[in-house]
Amino acid sequence: MDHKVTVVGAGNVGATAAQRIAEADLADVVMVDVAADLATGKALDMMESAPVLGFTATISGGGDYGPTEGSDVCVVTAGLARKPGMSRDDLLKKNTEIVGEVVRELVARSPETILILVTNPLDAMCEVARRVSGFPRRRVFGMAGVLDAARMRYFIAAELGASVEDVDAFVLGGHGDTMVPLPRFATVNGIPLPDLLAADRIEAINERTRKGGGEIVNYYKTGSAYYAPAAAVYEMVGSILRDKKKILPCAAYLEGEYGLEGLFVGVPVKLGRSGLEEVIEVELTPEERAALHASADAVRELVEALPA
Q: What is the phi/psi pair of residue 43, to 5°?
């Protein structure tokens, strides 16, 4: 394999992302987890599917960062989920510690790698990774908008009884209830969504998109979504390693774009072999811009609460 991808965190999201990347022969994959045997076992289980599925990429797993050396892309999914009785600040503090240590280990062995953050609270964890790594913005960004947009695209397709392949949409803002779906830019085989659906049905889709993660949690009871998040990671990694230059909504560090400075906020970007190659600015209505800035304010509150 020409490429190596490290996935830190062998839980549901990390392991499923590793599986998708390997099965597509995108790269050899190294999974790292504090539960070393879990990572080793999952990697072995996946490799035993290779003769059936016919992929040639290798997957290894364990608790040692040594095998991650020279990784082209590192995906960070490690972190705690919020538990009953745990405050937001408690979660922020613990995941800041986890992500900070993970990034230090990765950067020491792969100083030219590209970091994709998945750990929540996502936008704040991207800032932790940026500070710890010292990387330019093109090499540290987060997975959120690809997932949120995928949910929106599915909801549109289901509402219309149309093919998901024909639906395009994207979402701006932070990863959470303040995200900003933009139905004005959504299309079905080029036809603008407002030409196909009434305003109340569009708003219902917007609201379901905002609460998409919670909807899955309510069904799972004891866990959160992982198939779609892993697919979103896979698309981002594929665009980078294959230099596809896809325009995808990601959590990017803004430097004045959209009137925002020094924050990770979900916006459309171009992903290629060097990472985040361009932030795409679209003209927003005053209402859309206000909603984006309100979402950014929520991100700013989290960043200001980060441990020093």
A: -60, -45
How many other CB atoms are there within 10 angstroms of residue 182's CB atom?
23
C-alpha angle 7-10-11 in degrees, rounded to nearest 5: 125
CATH code of the domain covering residue 187: 3.90.110.10
Show the tokens assigned to 59. 């997957």
DSSP of 167-226: EE--EEB-SSTT-EE-GGG-EETTEEGGGTS-HHHHHHHHHHHHTHHHHHHHHHSS----
Number of structural domains found in the chain: 2
Are residues 34 and 71 part of one domain?
A: yes
From first to last of its 308 residues, the chain has per-residue pLDDT tens of 799 999 999 999 999 999 999 999 999 999 999 999 999 999 999 999 999 999 999 999 999 999 999 999 999 999 987 666 767 678 889 999 999 999 999 999 999 999 999 999 999 999 999 999 999 999 999 998 999 999 999 999 999 999 999 999 989 998 878 899 999 999 999 999 999 999 999 999 999 999 999 899 899 988 889 999 999 999 999 999 999 999 999 999 999 999 999 999 999 999 999 999 999 999 999 999 999 999 999 999 999 999 87
**Which of 91, 118, 142 represents a domain boundary (last residue)?**
142
CA distance 31 to 72: 14
Q: What is the pTM for the complete model shown?
A: 0.96
Is the CB of residue 20 less than 8 Å from the CB of residue 231? yes
If you count them, how many residues does the chain have? 308
User: In terms of domains, do 175 and 41 share one?
Assistant: no
Contact, 33 vs 65, CB < 8 A? no
Contact status, residue 172 vs residue 152, Cβ threshold 8 Å: no
* Active site members: 175
Are 128 and 306 in contact, with CB atoms under 8 Å apart?
A: yes
State the residue range of the domain holding 198: 145-304
